[in-house]
Amino acid sequence: CLATLVIMLVGDTYTLINYVSFINYLCYGVTIMGLIVLRWKKPRIFRPIKVNLLVPVTYLAFWAFLLIFSLYSEPVVCGVGLVIILTGVPVFFLGVYWRNKPKCVNRLIEAATCWGQKLCFVVYPQREED
């Protein structure tokens, strides 16, 4: 989020759209690959929608073409897009992977979550106390 704000202040909107479109293509392709892997490794799991494997495989072929073409035509934009994605890795390790955090870190994360919910007008549904 901070990297996007900096790019918006420094660069132009066209460049930001290029960064976001590359990130979207990358995420969509990885998601489709994950679905294919799950369908292969766990074939008996319940799926509300099941399509012929030709559809996601065809999508992945076009996805690979678009991604390779993007990497070839604009490597700097793709590199910045990858850096933007990788800025989430420390956040993942801090918030999810690290289980035995000190209480001060937990309080900081809870305060940031509360601030973000207030900023975006988002509230997680609460259960009624008995």
TrEMBL record:
Biological processes annotated in GO: D-alanine transmembrane transport; D-serine transmembrane transport
Transmembrane annotation, as ranges: 16-39, 51-73, 79-98
Keywords (A to Z) from UniProt: Membrane, Transmembrane, Transmembrane helix
Domain of life: Eukaryota
Molecular function GO labels: L-amino acid transmembrane transporter activity; neutral L-amino acid transmembrane transporter activity
InterPro entries documented for this protein: AminoAcid_Transporter (IPR050598)
Protein's recorded name: AAA1 protein
Organism: Eudromia elegans (Elegant crested-tinamou)
High-level lineage: Eukaryota, Metazoa, Chordata, Craniata, Vertebrata
Name of the coding gene: Slc7a10
